[in-house]
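Can't paste images in this forum, so I'm doing it all in text. The chain is below; anyone willing to post the predicted structure tokens underneath?
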Amino acid sequence: MQTLQRHPGKHVFGVVDQSKEVERILKEVDRRGVAKSDVQVVGDEPSGDQEAPAQDHHGALEGVTHAVAMVSEEHEFNELYQSEVEAGRRLVGIPVSRTIDKDAAQDILHRHGAHFINYFGPWVVEELES
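Text version of the structure:
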């Protein structure tokens, strides 16, 4: 997993409960022409070894608390996303572009079981779905 960019503007974020759904989201955005590496994913994968977080093709998860704090200055979003990640869920952010607009990103996340879906743009946070 990777940490979030410092200012991940123009992303639609949602909380995903199932790691298999994260993989499906990554495959879908890849089919639509967005590189998997451009999708923001934060959260530990379940593993038998509690000492070290699991790793996947995004690299090691570093500083979940710090990363979640970088999503927004909005305290309620920081707390919500942090508690969801700490509970074992994944925070997924799809970049908004010509290829995938805000509505399409919301639809992708929704179809894969995401909740607490929000758009983070320059100077705006828009609650799309809770």
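The longest strand covers residues 115-121. Residues 19-31 form the longest helix (13 residues).
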